[in-house]
Amino acid sequence: MLTTVLWISMSMIGLAFCFNLLRLIRGPTIADRVLALDTLYINGLAVLIIFGMLIDSRVFFEAALLIALFGFFSTVVISKYLLRGDVIE
Questions:
Q1: Most buried of 70, 71, 74, 85 (most Cβ within 10 A)?
Q2: DSSP codes of every residue in 15-73
Q3: Distance between terminal CA atoms of the chain?
Q4: CB atoms closer than 10 angstroms to residue 20
Q5: Closest Cα partner for 78 from 25, 7, 30?
Q6: So where are the chain's domains?
């Protein structure tokens, strides 16, 4: 029962991943594209965690933690660049 729910949730996250990729490509403004990129890494994070639950491995949780860390820093850096035009003051 749990594996069925995990596969259904992984397919729904995959569909959300496709919609976010479409928004990343066709986004009318740069802010929409940054938001889509931020949501893409969160969806990738969710897929890694669910896949780790499916195969009962803890390695994927550590990889998800690293992706979350790099994703947060990249969002901060891109936002700072868009606001000021420079990352380091």
A1: 71
A2: HHHHHHHHHHHH-SSHHHHHHHHHHHHHHHHHHHHHHHHHHT-SHHHHHHHHHHHHHHH
A3: 53
A4: 20
A5: 30
A6: 2-84
Sign of CA dihedral 65, 68, 60, 55: positive
Among residues 47, 41, 60, 40, which one has the least CA distance to residue 11? 47
Work out the burial of residue 78: count CB atoms within 10 Å of its CB; fewer than 13 is exposed, 13-18 middle, 19 or more buried. Answer: middle
pLDDT number for residue 9:
95
7-66: pLDDT as tens digits: 999 999 999 999 999 999 998 888 888 899 899 999 999 999 999 999 988 888 888 899
